Amino acid sequence: MTSQIDNLPISIEFFPPKTPDGMEKLRQVRQQLYVLKPEFCSVTFGAGGSTQEGTFAAVRDILAEGVDAASHFSCIGATRAGVREQLVILRAMGVKRLVALRGDLPSGYGTGGEFQYASDLVAFIRHETGDDFRIEVAAYPEVHPQAKSPASDLQAFASKVRAGANSAITQYFYNADAYFRFVEDADALGLQVPVVPGIMPITSSTQLMRFSDACGAEIPRWIRLRLQSFGDDSASIKAFGLDVVTALCEQLRAGGAPGLHFYSMNQSVATLEICRRLAL
Ligand code: FAD
After folding, report:
1. Does the model's pTM come out above 0.70?
2. Out of 47-51, 89-93, 191-195, which region has the weakest mean confidence (pLDDT)?
């Protein structure tokens, strides 16, 4: 399925619901979003494989709906034998795309496992399965929170590309300059992979603050203050969020971003509306 909004490919991310009811709701959300003709839909993978069953079930559903599906796959705490087994399952399911990650374990779990970084996972997948999978990796225009420095984070990104990643999806951000700078820096290192910006629609103020604190994405002061000033007025938060995120997407498209990856949070309304506005 080729996907275009004014020739800009999009992809959409979901997380695996915990209940049968949640799975059914997600099916309905996906049907609404398929009008956008996404290039692929991806499903996140919980720390230490905790959501493996739900992730694989949602990936199976997406493939059965005739849409390309990417399974996220994290290696923290995993063994080589375990990853090998899961790759066999994914291949048998007909999965052709993986988002290969290190992942995070809840504090107190230590790291353990036989993989230290996502680059180790990418190298292992290539070693085990050749070119069977298209591999996406994570990129951090505003620098990963545990990185020693921006330069070492860029080198970590380079290691993933050199280990065999085909393309990258970024952590979300609201400052387009950070993205353009990251792409320039990656180009300067000769890393010839598309870096697709991750887009987080703004639909709730508290949820956004909570996520952003945890993953190191910066909410610019002017956005934070505006959101705070709306208090519980969710209609104003949503209206403001649509304006801000659509303008960001416009800026990214104008600057040559190779696509947009939407963090849907299993909701369709904001993503649909942003895409509708972008097509105008
Ligand atoms: P890595 O690329 O391994 O980097 C982790 C840290 O190690 C960075 O600080 C990096 O600078 C450093 N580093 C890497 N290599 C080296 C080296 N050789 N020497 C020194 N330092 C090094 N999490 C989930 O649990 N499930 C998901 O489904 C999921 N999906 C995601 C999708 C996207 C698009 C993004 C952007 C993130 C996602 N995450 C997910 C979050 C991700 O797992 C965390 O951000 C995690 O902390 C880092 O994963 P990584 O793959 O980027 O790790």
Report:
1. yes
2. 47-51
Could you give the residue numbers annotated as active site? 13
> Which amino acid residue places its CA nearest to atom 52 of ligand 1?
138
Count up the domains in the chain and report the number: 1
Q: Please report, for the domain that includes residue 115, its CATH number.
A: 3.20.20.220
Ramachandran category for residue 169: left, alpha or beta (phi over 0 → left; psi -120 to 50 → alpha): beta
Whether 213 maps to a domain, the answer reads yes
Residue 34 inside a domain? The answer is: yes
Output the CA angle 178-214-212, nearest 5 degrees: 50
How far lies 195's CA from each of 20, 71, 101, 205, in Å?
A: 34, 18, 15, 27
In this structure, the dihedral spanned by the alpha carbons of residues 230, 235, 240 and 243, taken in order and rounded to 10 degrees, is 180
Domain span at 156: 8-277
Q: Is 44 in the pocket of ligand 1 (CB under 6 A)?
A: yes
Q: Using a 6 Å cutoff on CB, does residue 100 contact ligand 1? A: no
* pLDDT tier at 3, thresholds 50, 70, 90: very low
